[in-house]
Each structure stands twice: as structure tokens, then as C-alpha cells.
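Q: I'm writing up a methods section and want to include an example of the input and output format. Could you take the sequence below and give the corresponding predicted C-alpha cells, formatted cleanly so I can copy it straight into the document?
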Amino acid sequence: MNIEQRICQLRQKLMVLGYYPFQVKRIMQTVMENNDIEQANVAEQLRIVNVLENYEKLANDFSFAYSK
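A: Here is the clean output for your methods example:
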């Protein structure tokens, strides 16, 4: 799986977990210098993956904590 596919997968997971598309987009834009997702370099893409994975973990933890 390449970086772009991983980003797409994480975006979908976050939306299933309750994030709105504009929220996910804004999260991604805060990581990048130029705010253009299509122009992100490899380093920015890796940071995006790391940040989205952290948000996914946070959302999963929240969901688990309140599902009891």
C-alpha cells in the first residue's frame, strides 16, 4: 500500500468514526506548509499519515470508552 492509499484509508476510517470530511481535510492542512493536499511532498505525506493515525487512535479510544 502506498502513502496516498494509506491516507485515503485513514480518511475513510475517520469519517466512519464520526469526523466530517471538512474536519479531516483541515487536520491534513495543518500538517502541510502550503495547504495543498495534492502538492504535498513525501515528508508531508508521512506526517499526514502519522497525524491521521493518531486521530484514529483517539477516536477509537473515545468510542471504546463511551460504549461501555
